[in-house]
Amino acid sequence: MRRWNGWGEATTVVELPAQGAGFLAERLGVGRVLPDATLEEALARVPASRLAAHGLYSIEPHDRLLHARGQSLPDWLALREGAPGLYPDAVAFPDSAGQIRQLLALAQTQDLCLIPYGGGTSVAGHINPPDSVRPVVTVSLARMNRLLDLDEHSLLATFGPGASGPQVESQLRARGYTLGHFPQSWELSTLGGWVASRSSGQQSLRYGRIEQLFAGGTLETFAGPLEIATFPASAAGPDLREVVLGCEGRFGIISQVKVRISALPADERFYGVFLPDWSQALQAIRQLAQARVPLSMLRLSNALETETQLALAGHPQQIAWLEKYLALRGAGVGKCMLTFGVTGNRRQNALSLSQARQHLKAFGGVFTGTLLGKKWAQNRFRFPYLRENLWNAGYVVDTLETATDWSNVDNLLERIEQSLRAALAAQGEQVHVFTHLSHVYGEGSSIYTTYVFRPAADYPATLARWQALKHAASQTIVDNGGTISHQHGVGKDHAAYLLREKGALAIDTLQALSRHFDPAGRLNPGTLLQE
Ligand SMILES: Cc1cc2nc3c(=O)[nH]c(=O)nc-3n(C[C@H](O)[C@H](O)[C@H](O)COP(=O)(O)OP(=O)(O)OC[C@H]3O[C@@H](n4cnc5c(N)ncnc54)[C@H](O)[C@@H]3O)c2cc1C
């Protein structure tokens, strides 16, 4: 069963090792534990719905609570307190495009707002109900999760939009294929959500981001269905897939998604390498990306993330042994951990591995084989579960991300980290901040920063701490040549920063598209574009 107030399956627990807890206590002080509300307490706070019961949706408090928030830190705090504040008046679970159209029609006759909802894994406030005089219906696509068509000649698969990562992969794997899209939220996020929020998977180096995988489909809008045919390529004017990608439920509800798939790879391996310092590591991976060495994933942790990961890994004796070995080989204090993968057939993979090893060696890279790579692969979807036990130990963790050109990566990364470290200084609070680069391109890279801090004395004050941190980092990003999001999207949390990034004409253009598809502004108001 899915946790109602946290991440993932309730039965999956990732422990915080004693060494990890000690490491955080040294940096941040002893943790502060805030009391959690029970499910019963949270349910008792759900107000009466403004809608009467209807065959197309549920007005049950349980459904409304479970669809009230996503997975951002403010969402986490609201759910832990048992007080999301705003709730959808109803939750619909359509099982066909026909039912989605009925819901659009009902929204017009009953003056409703609709919020398309995939897996609810948004970390930017995308699916939180607006404070609206109109009743709000959240439209969960969970029942539309099937593989509808497989064109094996063209390697195209058509899915319902609500297929989660495991549902996409299990239906494709049974036929010998993969989509290859593995965001860290893979267990719960959905194909429609990935498209609507321009998601990026951990192996985007091989398979591409969702933009490259999304071939076409249907968007149900108030102006009628927008059908996007698939072509291998087309010069027939602007590509309307770009209207659907990143629309964040503002222009319509995606009812069908066609994706480009691949045959399952014969061979896949992940490896660990330690580089002696950040400046050499950065140069090494930039050149690796620009040389187009065919790797399937690459993740470079800065020195503090490397140190933190080793501390949180548990197994202190093995880690001490590894550190001794690395120091002897020239990767001591300041070392940076790189994980990379090769995916394909054995011959290609052997060649890619040897190219990568040779290249990294020239930068002082110490190759440690597959052990750390295997651990990364085993735990790739488990890290978010650690948030639970960090919270129980009295610490809050959040992440933020951006992308910029190589010439600005180091500068922007440093500024983001500094802005976070300084944001709670007036309160005398330390913030533990570390970063990795995990999506690299010829021209630049994503920057993914994690920050850990202590809750304040109560929930509102803790939220205020987060707001100070988030604002400091977001303003730093847009003021210093970064995009407000490389992969998490805009939602409500980033909407205020979009104008600075895109400019007034671009925002007007997006507003015009929204009015075109949704003249009365019923779809997900406040997300992507501020009201
Ligand atoms: C622990 C964790 C790890 C994460 N890791 C990654 C990562 O590695 N890469 C990454 O890209 N993101 C990541 N995310 C963010 C999140 O998972 C992505 O934004 C994901 O694409 C959201 O998918 P979803 O199905 O949960 O959509 P939701 O959260 O339900 O919705 C997101 C947006 O899409 C819209 N939407 C959803 N379905 C439809 C539809 N059918 N039609 C129209 N609009 C729709 C919603 O209205 C909303 O605006 C992570 C989140 C968490 C909590």
Automatic annotation (TrEMBL):
Q: Where is the FAD-binding PCMH-type domain?
A: 84-264
PROSITE patterns in alphabetical order:
FAD_PCMH (PS51387)
Which keywords are on file for this protein? FAD, Flavoprotein
- Write down the Pfam families for this protein, in alphabetical order: FAD-oxidase_C, FAD_binding_4
InterPro entries tied to this protein: Alkyl-DHAP_Synthase, FAD-bd_oxidored_4_C, FAD-bd_PCMH, FAD-bd_PCMH-like_sf, FAD-bd_PCMH_sub1, FAD-bd_PCMH_sub2, FAD-linked_Oxase-like_C, Oxid_FAD_bind_N
Which family does the record claim for this protein? Belongs to the FAD-binding oxidoreductase/transferase type 4 family.
This chain belongs to the protein called: FAD-binding oxidoreductase
